[in-house]
Predict the structure of Haemin-degrading HemS/ChuX domain-containing protein.
Amino acid sequence: MIAAPNGHAQNGLMDLLGVSDILFIIRGGGAVAEIRSNSLGIRRKEQWITIGDNDGPCHMHIDSGKIASARFVAEEKPGRTSYSVRFLDDDGERVLGAFFTKMYDTEGALSQDRKALYDGLSSKYGTEVYFTE
């Protein structure tokens, strides 16, 4: 576990945006939004982090004050493992998920390059990060 200032959430998101084929997923109120990260920008105004361009085809606004922690998750599923970073609120509920896609080739073999990207970020930030004011 690592404790980090809340601005660290933006740094983590910036690092994730630098990785191709990250799928950001936001759930809430009966709706799900999925946004692929390829070439999306990021900026911050007060507590709000914006990913994407307001005038572009997609964007999202994230209230950084609602993100209390981030957790690197390797979840075993039938035949493969799902790799993600989950940004959680104070109650441990997911605010935003960042899923590493294209982790397996057509024969089902794990991409060592993609796994190394995930492991590198996990090593940089720690498997669990708690954000402070």
